[in-house]
Predict the structure.
Amino acid sequence: MTDVATRIEAEDALPILTLLADERMSWVDESECRGQSELFFAPFAERPEARVRREAKARDLCEACPVAGPCKEYARQNRELGFWGGESESQRATAGFAPTTPIIGRRQVAAQRAAAALARAI
């Protein structure tokens, strides 16, 4: 790997490293869910029954987790998507902490790609 490629990779990692070094996220190292993100974030086109099963497994992990409180607060403050601190997106939304990230569907993605291709062609 060239020095330029190594430098670019290191520069790309800086925001992630800064986030993890942030004291507000110090609880992450003690979480029970590390390495199990598939339980906490919905796959594309997940069926409602599958979501219920997945979130039940996630909830079980959260109940045993020593840092569920800070995790839940982080998700609320940052309006995160997914299952955090024993709380689903819909539960956070009901509590007044709805995610601010727009969730886009396949048609919207296709329309955005077509618009981008048209813009490149012009």
Summary: Residues 46 and 54 are 10 Å apart (CA to CA). Residues 31-121 form one domain. The helical segments are 3-21, 48-63, 68-78, 89-94, 106-121.
